[in-house]
## 1
Amino acid sequence: MLEMTKTPQQIVKDLDEYVIGQDEAKRAVAVALYNRYRRLRLPEKMQADITPKNLMMIGPTGVGKTEIARRLAKIVSAPFVKVEATKFTEVGYVGRDVEQMVRDLVDVSVHMVEEEYYSRVRGRASQEADKKLVRLLVPGIKHEKRQMTMQDMMAALTGNGNQNQNNDEDSEEVTDAVRDQRLSVKEQLSKGLLEDREVTIQMDEQKPMGGGGDMMGQMGIDMGDMLGNLLPKKQVSRTMSVKEAREVLIRQESSKLVNHDDIYSDAIKRAENTGIIFIDEFDKIAAGNKRTSGEVSREGVQRDILPIVEGSQVNTKYGMISTDHILFIASGAFADTKPSDLIAELQGRFPIRVELDDLSKEDFVRILTEPNNSLIKQYIALIGVDDVHLTFTKEAIDRIAQIAYNVNHTVENIGARRLATILEKLLEEVSFSAPDMAMGDITITEQYVNDRIGKITADKDLTQFIL
Ligand SMILES: Nc1ncnc2c1ncn2[C@@H]1O[C@H](COP(=O)(O)OP(=O)(O)OP(=O)(O)O)[C@@H](O)[C@H]1O
Ligand SMILES: [Mg+2]
């Protein structure tokens, strides 16, 4: 479960597919990550003494800090959460709220481990699900009058309709005709002929997820979950296609086939040993000179975060988790503040510092074209939906990159985010009229870029508003 299949070099190579440049930062995160797997291969006694070296990424806005962290988590499939440190400076937050990030990490981990357990029993679960589908599609003959059992009475008293339902199912009579029909439906099902047929199934009520910032969250407890674990989940009937229903049923059956306590303890272990918490906007909690009134003291927030980063026990609904070996990646632009404005203890917990570079025009060209789902590829695909074939000349892309670079340096440097605003403006007309063109080719040339964007960039005020 905890074996590391990727070396730092491979991690960097994978990151290269999404993030342009920033080699130093990529190397640093790859090493920080790999070190944790190194540690896990040591004798346990020694493991305990090796605390992870947390990392701080410093660099201007929009140059790939968050992107690196986001991709990293996917590449190594470690539990990963991202929080904004500024969230803790908002009015109404109390010290214990910072623990929420650890709880969120455990939630993510539980979900990951659950999926793995479920995929292992999927074969059996889908057999069961298909059996259920057959019964739903060809119900047995229901008997109107039957004696009320003790259970029915209880169910009627507590108003638990679900219980009733189950009993009904049990009391169905399966006649020979029903059996024959079920056989034929079973065969049709397996051939995939009934995927669009509608069935009504019983499922857990989907409750909206309680965010960390609500009343209960502030108490450090998740009341909904606490109650949810005590009371049986409310069941609701929903009608959907066989295809959708099968997935729901497979999950229900999988859930019966796995041991949830194993999942929880595995998940806690995994979060403890491989979890990554990415704290964005870290510079905003450094005590700068700007301080808005009503804001929670920034130093106070740092003091709240400190124990978690230093290693402490946090109570979650799945059990206690120790944060000793969780990897923390702090990130911030540190434009108005410096890392040295942080309290000393916190600085000490982030010994690895990497600086990200400002992006050049050449970087922009690469960002536009190289990554797997680069902006240009996204637009080509989007416009392609209307059967309009969009292409960009090399010169046009060059021009877009140049404009982005210029605007960043004359108005405000927002890094690669500038590309998004420029492309949106550039393709406004195309996006609008493509559906009515009914096929065709559009080539974006340098001239087109100049025509649409050139005028705007000539006027600084206009640029500020539009690009
Ligand atoms: N080096 C890069 N390679 C590829 N894409 C990038 C790069 N830098 C930024 N981007 C793109 O720009 C957008 C913003 O980048 P990101 O979220 O990483 O900024 P950031 O460095 O975290 O900035 P902030 O300090 O404002 O949080 C993302 O959509 C990302 O895809
Ligand atoms: Mg960011």
## 2
Amino acid sequence: MEKKRGRPPKAQPKTLQADSQFAQFDADGDGVVSDAELMAAERAAELKAKIERWRNEDALQDRQRLIAMVAMLSTIGVIGALLSPYISLERMNAAQGFVNTFLVAQTGIVVGFMGASAWSKKKAE
Ligand SMILES: [Ca+2]
């Protein structure tokens, strides 16, 4: 390109490279990717990521709730079985150690779930 004398080079408008991934951000189709369009695209991407994060957290909470529910119901089931006439005292004595550990572990899961949900609720406020 020939250099003109006496005048400072005029700032040339920038163009996107061929098949640029930023070309899609020209929302109004005028061939110019404006700052506003770029910022709007960035905000939209952030919002999309945020919604995705919320969805994942929601699914995680659903799973944790299910686990806590299973722990609680299995505790109730074991106690119900122990109190039923179908289990002999002899067998109850034999399984005592296992049942104690099982009940404490299941209760721990339920308490952990309650604590975690109370904590995350407080954190969200
Ligand atoms: Ca535009």
## 3
Amino acid sequence: MGKNLFSKGKAAIPASVRTKEKRALRHTMSKYPTNPRQVIYACGSGKCQKRGGKEIRKTMRDQLKMAGLQDEVEIIKTDCTDRCKHGPIFSIQPQNIWLHDMSEAQIMQVFREQVVGP
Ligand code: FES
């Protein structure tokens, strides 16, 4: 089985990966040197932004910092997920929890329960 490129520590980048891609990969690896235990995918497109997605994302980042979890939980902004009517859309992985049709307070409650912890 191949070596996990994103495993802890400096990982080998296969020679077959082109130079530009290697630089991008090294940048990502230096920003996130370990595999996050959770990833939150947050729709960053227009309708979800207008429905409070940007502010919720910022609040999540602030709470992760306050809890010291910024290296364990990664928030990734995505393009539109074609669920605009149900936004703002957030997906918590690996639990595969999709947040939609929820108020900011409900989203933050799930975030606290599933990500930050008690
Ligand atoms: S704008 Fe967020 S799902 Fe389309």
